[in-house]
Amino acid sequence: MISHNELLFALDSTDNIVVMTSLDGVITYVNKAFETTYGYRRDEVVGAKTSILKSGHHTKDFYRDLWDTITNGETWEGDFLNHTRDKREVWEHTKISPIHNQRRQLTGFIAVSDNITTKRILEQQIQEEQFLLNELVANSPVAITIAQPLMVNGQVDDIIVLKANPVAGVIFNRLGLTGMRFRVLMPSFANYFVQLDSITSEKQALEVYVPELAKHLSFRTFPLPNGRFCALFYDVTDYKRTIAALQESEERYSSLVEDTPALICRFDNQANITYVNKFSLINRKLDDIIGQSFYSFFDEASVRIIQKKLSHIKGHVTTVDFEVQMPVNNQVRWLKWVVRALFDAEGKIFDYQAVGVDFTDFKMAEQALAENRNMLNSIVNNSLIGVMVVNVRNEIVFVNSRMVEMFLYAEEEFYRMQNPHITLVDDENGIRRRFTDMLNHERDSFTAEREYVRKDGTVFWGSLYLSPVRDAGGEIREVVALVADIDLKKQFEMRLIEDEKKLKALNATKDKLFSIIAHDIKNPFNAILGFASLLHAQLDDFSKDEIRVFIEKILEAGENTYKLLEDLLTWGRSQLGKLSMKVVSNSPRAMVDEIFHYYTILAQNKSIQLVNALPDDLCVMADTDMLKFVLRNLIHNGIKFTNTHGTVECRAQSANTDGRVAIAVCDNGIGIRPEKLGVLFDISAFLSTTGTANEKGTGLGLSLSKEMVEKNGGNLSVVSEVGKGTTFLIELPVA
Questions:
Q1: Rounded Cα–Cα distance for residues 293 and 307 (Å)
Q2: pTM
């Protein structure tokens, strides 16, 4: 962002006069160009009324119109004639614009002026001369004609009138002189043709008596482009008085043209220069320039610009202007050109008049200022940090592109905000209070991390840095707020905290798990070792039926132990993220048949009937190993918690979601108490349970089963009633 000091430096560097005032016309600021022009020091005029500059030239109505315009919030543009400190007259072309704050309230005015004193003097002189010439042509008794000599063998043989004013018709006693020849109008005038051989290149002056008209005429000519000349006829007495004034006017005009600090030239339709003044910047002889192409002074790009501009001259458009570079005395200069087309009597362009003013210094300053502004804007707007500037009235006066990206408000919406803190989620850190303290000089810059709310309602974390901007007197004028998006950082920090909590919970779960497993896995091994020791020591003492019972007990204890170990190993792989998954089409009925066969002895020991009611053609999408694990756990639990002569059944049910099917694992066992249903799948609960035949279990398998089903895009739920049984529903996508 451009700082206050940089802005003041830029204003002091410009050649334009800059004045700022309050609403009642009290001067609040002037730049160096003002001091140079008016001779006042800045501290002499700041606080004074602008009336100290009045020259008395303008009327009260003039100032009333000016004030009505600017107080209505509009821009006034016009010319002033002011007095400097030493009462010199200064003409300014001024543009006065209102200064509004972000709430569109009028707070003052700024006047930017060009010193046009020299220009006004020149314009006034030119206007006076032009007015005089027009008056002479239209109203003077002088007859003025534009004529073309007809040459024969290099000598004037006759003269044809191309254009004549009404007075000429009066002098020659006939109307419609255009097209007439001098031999017809004044046959005796042919005697003077021999003196007019150079009439198209030199001024001529004759005084003759024309017997055909019975008048003494003074005949004066001066050449025009394209071999033409202008002739003035008038009675001797009146003509002499008028010609004296005309000569004086020509001399003044010529002096003005030659001495003006601008390049003035004329060129024809082929762009050949026919006239050029003594422009000091061009260190060349005028004879070397006359006849050269006007375009020869410019590069190709500039020539294209000029030709395009000249092509716009048509109809009522007679003047064009443009800015191009021009090599002058081995330097490239910037010139602002105004080109006017000159038309003949038929409305055709016969010549161009061009005036070029050197404004290189102004152009260079303008370009440097623009480059600096663009560089600063580029740095600020491409910053990864949001930048906002707030004035002492809590109005946002600047935001960069990053602020727009972060908060999703358009730049104009920021400027319309009545409160720059509306983006705060809350104010538990006292940001508003600290901001107010800063404006009251009770606090310097500070930083804070807090949550912000975007326009769409989403919230993100930002790091805020506030710093005051003071003027030369130490007063705070603005506050700069820098906001960095630290949402990812905060998310990472919160994730670390959450991971730490999870790790602690996992460690606690692990400790609890191994405590339970150490106890539950010990009992089956005691049974295995006990029955095995009996068989080993007294095998011959037992009958076959007794041996069969011992072996069944050993198998049952081994199965339970294997189940515990399998659950433990699977849980370990799950925690390490090593549970690979490959979703394929599976037949639940075939899996259940395999699992029922595996658990036949367990079921027979409790006289439990295993029923597979799943359709043969039912296929679901899931990882095969995971689905087997889930079915095996649920069927094992069904056997474990079902009383003797009970039933464990697997069947298909419709699911709550389209494209899915529910595999129901049902038993008519002891059921699950309501208080345990809520934590049945909670891995941290580890409900160490005992089956109807004192089978041991940790509940770990259910937690793993739910995790696996969800990994496969499904859902595992349970419905149970104490004393009536339990139904687990595995919802999976249909293949």
A1: 13
A2: 0.34
| Pair of tokens at residue 119 | 């220009």
Rg (CA), the chain: 53
In the beta sheet, which residues pair with residue 219? Answer: 206, 233
Which among 485, 516, 545 is the end of a domain?
485
DSSP state of 608: P
In total, the chain counts a number of residues equal to 735
Residue 568 within a domain: no
Asked whether residue 174 falls in the same domain as residue 269, the answer is: no
pLDDT of 310 reads 92
Q: Which domain CATH number covers 421? A: 3.30.450.20
CA 98 to chain CA mean position, Å: 26
What strands lie across the sheet with 155-164, from one edge to the other?
155-164, 143-152, 228-235, 215-224, 204-210
What does residue 725 show for φ and ψ, rounded to 5 degrees? 125, 180
Residues 241 and 265 in one domain: no
Side-chain-facing half-sphere of 486: CA atoms under 13 Å: 16
Give the lowest-confidence range in 240-249, 364-373, 634-643.
240-249
Is 35 buried (19+), middle (13-18) or exposed (0-12) by CB count in 10 A? middle
Domain count along the chain: 5
Q: What is the DSSP code (8-state) at residue 186?
A: -
Do 164 and 100 fall into the same domain?
A: no
- pLDDT tens profile 110-155: 999 999 998 888 888 878 877 776 566 666 677 888 899 998 888 8
| Enclosing H/E stretch for 67 | helix 60-71
Using the 3D structure, point to which of 115, 135, 153 is the last residue of a domain. 115
How far does Cα 316 stand from its chain's mean position? Answer: 40
**Cα first-last separation, the chain:** 62
CA 507 to chain centre: 52
266 and 409 assigned to the same domain: no
User: Which of 215, 220, 149 has the alpha carbon at shortest distance from 188?
Assistant: 215
Inside any domain, residue 575:
no
Contact 410, 435 (CB under 8 A): no
Copy the structure tokens of residue 225: 């482009």
CA 183, distance to chain mean position in Å, is 76
Q: Is residue 81 part of a domain?
A: yes
C-alpha distances (whole Å) from 619 to each of 571, 589, 642, 646, 733 are: 27, 9, 28, 28, 9
Helices (H), 72-147: 117-139
pLDDT band at 207 (very low <50, low <70, confident <90, very high): confident
The residues, ordered by sequence, that sit 6+ positions from 62 with a Cβ below 8 Å of its Cβ are: none
Cα–Cα distance measured from residue 327 to residue 356, given in angstroms and rounded to the nearest whole number: 13
* Residues 102, 90: Cα–Cα separation, whole Å: 35
The residue segments making up the domain with residue 31 are 4-115
Q: Rounded to the nearest 10 degrees, what angle do helices 236-259 and 117-139 cross at?
A: 160
Distance from C-alpha of 406 to C-alpha of 455, rounded to nearest angstrom:
9
Cα separation, 228 vs 160, in Å, equals 10
pLDDT attached to residue 699:
61
pLDDT band at 87 (very low <50, low <70, confident <90, very high): very high
